[in-house]
Design goal:
With 98 residues, the chain is an alpha+beta fold. The chain has one domain (9-97). 22% of the residues lie in helices and 35% in strands. The protein contains 2 helices and 5 strands; from the N terminus they run H-E-E-E-E-E-H. Strands 1-2-5-4-3 form a 5-stranded mixed β-sheet, covered by helices on one side. Mean pLDDT is 81; it is low at 1-5 and 89-98.
Length: 98
Amino acid sequence: MNMSKFVQESMLCEPIKQLIDLFNSCGFTIDKQELRDWHFNEFEIIMRGEQLKLPHEINVNNIERYNENTYICKCHWSTLRLIFENDKSALNVVLTKS
């Protein structure tokens, strides 16, 4: 996990670390990380990547999928949001079929 320009990795709960590692392995990168609550170590993390590279299934204990691009840990209420970049190859396929 590349956390060098962000908060220390030790402050994140294990489910969020696992989720970040999973999305990193799919080509997503951390765009922003903010500590929302020092007392609970509650973070908001934003990652960028291509939606087409998402794994089909996400099985990380204590992680709940809130919607298409938002995941929440049940232990510290940290939130991980995905921002999907445009996939130009997918766009080209749509445009050439029209």
